[in-house]
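Protocol step 4 of 6: record predicted structures for both targets in the notebook before any analysis. Target 1:
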Amino acid sequence: MDLASSSYQVGGSISSSTSIYVERQADQELTQALLEGKFCYVFNSRQMGKSSLLLHTKEHLQQQNITCCFIDVSRIGSTDTKSEQWYGGLVYELCRGFGLIGTFDVLKWWRELGELTPAQKLSDFLEKVLLPNCPGQLVVFLDEIDSVLSLPFSSDDFFSVIRFCFNQRAANKEFERLQFALFGVALPTDLMTNKTRSPFNIGHAVSLQGFQSAEAVHLVKGLPFNQDIAQAMVQRIVYWTGGQPFLTQKLCQLSVNRHDQPPLSVEQCCEWVDELIEQEVLADWEGQDNPEHLRTIRDRLLLDEQHTLQSLSIYQKVLEAGDKGLPLEQVSGHSRLYLTGLIEVIRGRIYSRNRLYTQVYDMNWVTSQLSARRPYFEAFNAWLDSGQSDEQLLQGQALQEARSWAKGKALPDDDYRFLAASQDAEKRKIEALNQQLTQEIKERELAQQQLKEALDDVKKAQQEAERANQAKSEFLRRVSHEVRTPINAVLGLSYLAQQGSDPVTMSYLEKIHNSANYLLGMIGDIVDYSQIEQGKLRLDPTPFYLDTLLDKLVDIIGQRAVNQGLALRLHSPLQPLPKVLGDELRLEQVLLNILTNAIKNTEHGSIDLSVNLLEQSENALTLAFSINDTGPGLPTAVIDALVDTEQHSPKNNSLGMGLNLCKQLVSLMNGTWKISAEPSKGSQVGFTITLATVGQVPQLQLSDTQDVCYFGDLPHPEISQRLQAIGIQHANDAQLLAAKLILFDPKLTQPKTLDSRWVALLPSGQNQSASLPKSRVTRLLNYPMTISKLDRHLQSMLHYRPQTDLQNETVTDSQWSVLVAEDNDINQQVISELLARWGIASVISENGQQALTAVQQQDFDLVLMDVNMPLMNGLQATEAIRALDDIKYQQLPIIAMTAHAHEEDRQATQAAGMNEHVTKPIDPNALKTTLEKYLNAPISAQTSVHSKRVDWLETIPQLRLRETLDRVADNRSLLQRLVRRFAEQYSPAQVDWQGLPHQTQAQQANWLHTLKGTSSNVGLADIAALAASMEQEAANQSLQLNQWQLLQQQVSQACTTIFTVSDNNTSAQTATQDKGNLKAQLTELYRLLEEDLSEAQQLLATLSEYPQYTDIASALDEFRTDDVEQLVHNWLQQLEDA
């Protein structure tokens, strides 16, 4: 056999003239349909022989004188082709196929149709050009029709033209001569974009199957083997290929290629063909697939992402069904898979097209492809394996991602069921969650309602607590005011009485002053504790001397220690320290509280106050304070509370108010606590703080140390150390004779002779020793004391000389005029005396209304305004003054005076328009500083005030003279004026005794309050007690008329007695300043240079008549204190030498 003429063609169109073309049923069906004038289409997978069928049919029709035109649609164009070009190209191909090119100008005709649509032009060509110019039957074969899917425009109009030609046959018989046959790999529905249009429902679909056994016998002719072997080989090849034309032709050609190794018998043919397929096809099928066939099927199956999963799933079921086939009704969407060529449909069942495909695309391959493309394959497989259990369904984010992935894809039915079941389960879950959420919302709404009610209760409780706090704050303000008012009198009057007193009296007055200040401190503790609770406590740093503070503490606490039989010892640096910057009042509060607590808890032994200088730099001191006692020791709860830095609550009950306040204050000072205690041995409470320094270190002033010595044993080593630090030594016999001052302890030493040189050392708080003859020793020195106080007191004793009483001088030409608005006569007297000493004239107003009238009648340089006054209070009066229509009333300095010391009180005075706030009791130094600030000039003292002793006070039986004189430092002249003022104020002519019982409760309480304070200040205790009792009953609205009558009787009787016994013509005595007075003033000036330069300036002003005044005043104005001290020392030395 000639192999060249009988070779097989693998791929491409096969001519029917060759011996290897196999005619199938489709050949006859297509030819017959076209002869009958039907519109035919052959849609099948690739490499099924469509082109060969087309060519064979065309040749057969032409043999019957039917004109045919073959057009490869893919040749016209696709992706970059415009509709005008594509339709024009189609018309051109028709002209070429039907032989009209030489007789018909296509381009000219096309242009002449102008703006007609391309589809209209095609229709017009078929009707008016093609049919008239081409006689007989005409058949148009359109191959690769699926290429229209790549066009950038819809091809629906083209298929509508074909339908038009078919439908037009009824109206125009010429159209019966025109038939169309379409070939391609597509579904009719794929070719139509508009799914509502259906041109293919008029067509005839021609099914193209593989070679049947009877049809394939023609292939035997091409095999170079004997007839029996060739026939057996073809049968085995068809067994593998199922008659698939491409594969059948290829295997036949591969058999020809091995003609030199033929099977030896018919029995060997099967094995021979199987081995051929294994070696030439299955082994590395992708690499040996040339020309492509298997890879083409694979790509058509996998690259169609929209339908891949559905096609793979159907094919998987086809493989599972095997030879039984898969019933067509059990699947949907198999058409896509059919176009790949993998399957065939026979009598309502789907089968794999051939065995070779099942070997290449086996179950493993299909499963791996499904797993790779199904993002939820694990869950899906588990769902199937579990019998579609809900536990394996998708949920949440995985379900959302799967739905997004599946959108627009054709999926297998199981996938749809899986996703639908997942969606339903998710919906049920959401519904359950919604129900749960609804329930939770209801519960939350209920909880919110309960919370709202609870918050309302809390708010009400907070409001109640705020009202309670406000009431407590108001109570504290009232208590503070009530207590500060009499203390104001004690401090003010004792201050006036200090000028020029002897050292013993000065010591008494100093203790009175310190004790009164201690009472103020206690009031401050109460107020501060309230501020701590409200978080309002703030420090107020000012410069002060630490030694001054320590001596003040000793004076305050010494008497208590003596009364309880305890020894009080002070351990402080043996050299003066510079001024430090800190809150002196708060530091004093801390130390006083700890000392008080130590004394309270110690029955016998000693209290030691120690101050150690840990570190000193150029600008700061680090100091360790500690208080040691010999008591039973602090309770553990107190120690824990003080040490535990986390417990900042002011309500720590284990500490009590005092120590609680201490803890908060030390914390504000950035200090640290140190606590230790041993049962029955006592406790140590201390803290360490760092304070900034201000100015230079002061120098000791005692220069005549050889004039001072100490005799015998001293009560404590600290005393001898301090004396030796100053330069004072233990006395020998020669020193005793020459010394001007001899210090001794009367308890430890009994000198044989005593004179004015001997100074007794007694514990602080003790003014007389049982072993000390009072008549023979007039000088006392209390210990312990700092080295600064020791130096100052010894200096004062060396230069002290007794002085006569000085006349109360009146300053006749005051430089300034001040309005004093104050309803309490004692306070009026104290402030007037202070202003007079400073050369300031004063006018008194008893209430805000009088003050408002006074400022409009007279020009004042400044106003001192009490806040709490009758008729119109100080705040109202200030607002009224500021509202007056003159700029001078806005510029007039108004200083508030009040016993209320709270921050809100300061803010209230500022809001009313007051410039400054001075707290009662009035501190003379603070008042003087404030006056200098707003008068814009320094103030110096004008006189020294002393009273002439008179006896008429002792004749008033209602007067508690001794107690009252102690309160005014034995200043009888001052007391005489105060008593006389009381009598004038409350005489029968001045008081409306008939109208008082009929006034309002508030007016009665206010009048009684004023009477109580005034009578108490002048020593009329019975009247004060009765007024206090009636004030309380007035508050309860239970006053009786007989009580007013009793009060009138007592007050009138007291006034009558005062007027009867008083001497209104007491003449002032003029005293001269002798040498002794001058030395005492210079010694006092020494002391003030260390403690208060403003007071030093005042005192220096009284010495302006002396020639030394100019140099000293000049040095003091420039704050050259060392030069001032030297000049004063020289002046004293001149007086001694004289």
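Target 2:
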Amino acid sequence: MSSSLVRKRRISGGGVNDSQTAPTKRRLTQNNSTQSQGANTSIIQDKRCGKILLMHLTNFMCHSNLTVEFHSRVNFLVGSNGSGKSAILAALVLGLGGSARTTNRSRSAKAFIKNGETSAKIEIVLANDGAQPYEPDVYGDKIIIVRTISLSSGSYVIKSESGQVVSKKVDDLHRILMYHNVQVDNPVFVLNQDSAREFLKELEPSKNYQLFLKATQIDVVHEKLADSLHLHKDHMEELKNYEIRLKKEKEDIAEHENKLKELLSFEKLMDVLKRLEIEFAWQKVQQYENQLQEISDKLAKYDEKERELKNLIQNKDEVYQILSQEIRKDEEGMTLKNSNYDKVNREYRELKNKYDEINKLTSEFKNSLDILKKKKSRLEHQIEEIKKYIDEKSQGNQDDVETLRAQNQNETLKLRQQCESQVIPMIENIKRELKRHIDSKAQKEQIVNEIKRRQRKYLDEIRLRSGQIANVKASAKNKILIYGKHMPELLTDIRKAHSQGLLSKLPRGPIGSYVDVANSQYRDVIENSIGRGLLGAFLVNNAKDRQILENIFTKYENCRPIIITVAFSDKVYDVSGGCVNPPKDTHLLLHEIRCSDATVMNCLIDRLGIESILLTNSKEIAETITSHIENVPKNLSRVLVLKEGNSCMEYYPMPKYRMYSNKVRPANYIQINIEERIRHLENEKQSLELKNKSYETDLSQMINQISQVIKLIQEQRELLIKQQNASQEIMEKIAELDNIEYADYSNEIQLLEKEMGDYKTRLAEIEQKISETRGQLSDVDNEKIQIGGELQFKEIELQEIKNDIEAFKSTVDRKKMKLRSVNNNDSSYRVKLSEVQDVINKLKAEHMEMSRKVDACTKSAAEKGERIESDLSGNQLQDEISKKAKNKHGKPVSFDPQSMRQLIMTKKEALLANEGKYEDIKHSIYTLRQSLRFSFEFLKKLREHMSLLLQISFNMILRLRNFEGSLDVNHQQKTLKLSVKPRCHNKNAVSDTKSLSGGERSFTTAAFLLSLWSCVDHPFYFLDEYDVFTDEVNREYMTRLLIDEGRKRPLRQYSFLTPQDMALMSEDFIKILRLEEPERV
């Protein structure tokens, strides 16, 4: 019987068992009274993915072999201090991906390995049968997570419900935990012993606030948003740089385009220069002509003024009389026009009022006509529908309907019988065959995976044997090489460090190099008892030496021997008082080991107790001295019995008598025969190679079988689809026949004809009304047209009269002004006449001079070329001529416009691509900014909402004990202050939590935790030593409060760890698990 099978002993009923190989034993028992028949009724209600179903611990802390089966609702783990409650909580954190620091127990996971063991294993079973399971086709209703911890490394294995390995990746574990919202590093959901005590003692506002953020995950969200904000700033800086680069690229393209234009225009430069010179010459002519025209215009204007002034002076009296008569005549005409305007305006208003009334009447007639037309259309449609229906029904016959009904019923019956007797049984048979083939394929694939696993295992063993053979061969020259090829260099570095004074004493190691066993028959079992890990270990004198040695180890890859700190001594312990006196035919393990160093021997005594272990070849002797307490020698801890082959028996004496069978590997370190060891290893390697080769044939055959099964599955699926389609067609025919409606012609046609007659009568009445309304509308329209014409005529007449009046007024005003000027300005006219005549003489002289200049410039310009009109000014033309003249002397040496065009095209394409990237970055930044704004606003609202919910829940829980209190959240100062007044309504009562008693403080803490639980959701909640500082009254209130929480929330799993014993009423949703008292030394 193997050791693994012997050690696992579970109590019936789903309790917990812990059978240990060490002297200290613990056992967890179950209170069966807490379970009732009503448990089955809540199976469906409390199912949820992520709950803990089972935990199995092997060599973890104080547990050698512990199995815990959890209830899906409420669990109480009861046990005194030292019984291993907190070890279960630490195993939960480590097993579900948490770090060793999270447990507050150690910084390294290897520290959780039980003393004397080299590895530990944590197995956790998660529920996957609730709503939204994780990949149920792969894992099934359970997910099994196994974490193995060794002295040098660790690993994860994720299995399905059937035990099949699905993954060994930590990332897959994180995905599963994230999918089920499992957060073992959140103290709100998993509160360990140290955190609980610290929390109970302090209740600091700042730490309370951090716990609130941690529980609601607001701190994680805020951190992610802060990272996004930094990312947004980086992108904005990148966008600015991109914008500057685009601007430079555009300027570069413009510069190259100007150069191209200059290259292309150089050939025409001379023509352009000549044209510009001609334009400049004629531009000068144009300037003189314009000046000459301006002088001529001024001269004509002053001539006209001269004539007017002379006329005014000569005809003053005559003009005055004529103007006065014209003014009186115009005023009389204007008065007459005003009277006509008033008359026509009255007539226009009367016509306008009448026209508005007719417009209103026209709209009323049109609305009435539209309503009547709609009624007529509806009636005509209803009459047409009735007539059509009557015609259709008249063509049929009731006998034909009944005959059709009977035919359809017979057809439906035949189709149903065909479907039930032929198609459905065939589909079921095909499904069974398909399932059988699929199951066969799955089994064969499982076999293939098992073969591949064994092949990998054998290949690893073959490589291991090859390495061992090489090490053994090398150790023939240097024995220390058996511990690894790096060991000589490592020992050299250790001696060098000691010689430099870095080490207080020279470390001892590897330990196996100091150990010899004279009796060859016990050599294998003694090496296995000591363990290869301990044989390869090093001993140091103090913690400082340990640190130096660890630094030396880091220089060598894959070199991490065990380091044991022990005070060095020159003398071996005196163990005569605790040594076993070996009976006949037995040997004491202490006497069989020869050790060349006292410190190494003392280490073996401390760690293995070799002075209390006996060796024998007789199973009967071992059973005799261990199975009866009177025969047990004093100080005996165990007996090792050598058996033939590669195994030994291990007996533990009464009163804890038990026996184990252990596999013994050949000695690899202690006094080995090199040739025999090499021969043995080569035989093992050859045997492994033969086994591996045999699996290759099996694998090939199995793969061929799987290909054949896949082909059969495909054929069955095609046949299934064909039959399902046939079944679907039959069911559609049946539904079509069942949905046929059969008419009944009894009195329906007569009623319809009567109804149609009523509709026709109403239709005639409406047509009569329509005819009358149209006549009235026509009369009104005619009258409207007539009045509209008159109204338009009056508008034209009023406008003409108004225009005449304005003309009269303008004429009168102008003549009155002229009359005043005639009376008042006679002397001024004479002065002005003299001034105007002087100006005229001056302008005539200028006109003659300018005419000579025009003639001279025109002759000069004509000699250069024909006249060209220019839009540029003289200065602009002169600047262009100077620029072109300079360019004429700077003709480029290399003239290649095509290369310049290609370069510009390339730069434009690059610019277009960069502008596209720029727009993409700009849009992304805008989207990120909008998202960040929304997220920060939502986070603020969420924080306020959670604070309010927390305050309400906290006050409600305090009222259960008639406590008064408040929970003040200050998001600016990042504090959460609890104020509680226990059963005291005095306004001046102290409300600080530090002034509360231990029980009141514990109840306040529990109320705060429950308030946090009400704000968030998690599959399970673990609370360690929640009642450590409380009294019996508050403990009872808190326990009742926690149980009530579990009763109200069946979808959550609660586990409470307490050192106090529990006495609860029998409830179907509560399970009490008790740990046995630890043995005290």
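Step 5 preliminary note on target 2. Residues 1-44 have pLDDT under 50 and may be disordered. Residues 397-476+672-741 form a domain with the Helix Hairpins fold (CATH 1.10.287).
Proceed to step 6 after PI sign-off.
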